[in-house]
Amino acid sequence: MIPAIATERLDMRGPLLADYAHYAAFWRSERSSHSGGPLPDWGIWLQFAAMRGHWEFRGFGLWTLVERSHGQRTLRMGRIISYVAEANHRSQHLAERLGARVAETGDHGGDPFRISLHPAPSPIDSDPRPA
Amino acid sequence: MTPPLVTARLVLRPPAPRDWDAFHDFMMSDRSTAFGSHKNLGRAFRAFAAEIGHWQIFGYGMWAVTRQGDDTCLGLVGPWTPPDWPEREVGWMILSPAAEGTGIATEAARAAISHAYDVLGWESVVSYIGPENHRSIRLAEKLGARLDPAAPQIDAASPVLVYRHPRPEARA
Q: Is residue B67 less than 8 Å (CB to CB) from chain A?
C-alpha cells in the first residue's frame, strides 16, 4: 500500500494508470530535458511502470501530486535527496527553498548534476499521517 | 493475491523483489542486447521495477517462470500492455542460459496465452518481435502464431514483426 498524504493544497498518492497521459506529455516535451528527457514512448512507459514498481521494491518511491482545487496531476517527488542537473535552475531554487544543502556534485554521461541533502523535518510536521 | 499458473514442469507466479539478482545477471550479460538496457545498471533496475509496477498498475503482467520445487526465476513470460500500444502482447525473455533449449519458454508461453484469453478475457494476443530475433520467431511459430503483416505497428519508424496467437482451443 502506498500511503496517501494530504498537505494544505495537495493530495499525494501512488501513481495510477489515469496519470499516464499527463506523465507522458511531460516526458515527450522539452521540459523534461533536465531529467534525461525527452524520452521515446517505450521509455516513458518503462519509467512510469518502474515508478510504481519502486514502491513494491523499496517500500518508498515517488508520489503523484494532485492539486486539490484542480483535480489535476502536477509533479512527482518524494525523496530526501534530490539529484538536480547543474543547468536546471528552477529545481535548484526549489531545493534551496526546501532547505536542502548541496552535498555532492557529479557527472552523468557528461551532464553535471548536484546531489542535495534535505534536512530532517521539524517536529511539528514530522508525522505525515496517511490521509 | 494472484494464484500461480502451474504447468507440467513449471510454476508461473508474479515477479517479486527477490528476482532482482537473476534479472540483473541477465541484463548485464551479452544475452540482453535486444532489450535496450544492456549493461546499464540504472536501466536494468528500471526495467525490473517496471515488471513489478506493471502488475501493480493492471493487476496482471509478465509471470516469473520457475521450475516446480525451485523458486529461482528463469525467465519472464506473459502480458505486457503499455497504454499507448495498439494491441495487447504476451512477451517473453529467458534469463538463464541454462534454461535455453529446454522448452520451458514454450511451456510457459502456452500457459500465459491461455490465461490471457480465458481468464483475462482478451480478444486477441500478439507478440511483437524484432525482425532479427530468430529464436523468438521460432518460438512464436512453435506456439502456432501467425505473422500478421496488416497489424498496426507500435512505431511505424521502426517496424517489428507482429505474430498473432490462436485461441487455445484452435491450436493444432
A: no
Residue B25 makes CB contacts below 8 A (sequence gap 6+) with B95
Within B88-169, residue ranges assigned H as helices are 104-118, 134-142
| Chain A partners within 8 Å of B27 (Cβ) | none
Whether B51 contacts chain A with CB within 8 A: yes
Span B30-52, pLDDT tens digits? 887 766 656 788 889 999 999 99
pLDDT exceeds cutoff 60 at A125 = no
Contact B128, B154 (CB under 8 A): yes
> Which residue is it, cell 541477465?
B26
Tell me whether B50 touches chain A (CB under 8 Å). yes
Encode pLDDT of A10-24 as tens digits.
888 999 999 999 999
Buried b (16+ CB within 10 A) or exposed e, A44-77: bbbbbbbbbbbbbbeeebbbbbbeeeeeebebbe
Q: Rounded to two decimals, what is the model's pTM?
A: 0.84
Amino acid found at B103: G
B58 contact residues in A (CB cutoff 8 A):
17
Dihedral sign for Cα B98, B33, B49, A19, please: negative
Task: Tell me the ipTM for this assembly.
Answer: 0.87
| Strand B146-147 versus strand A101-108 pairing type | unpaired
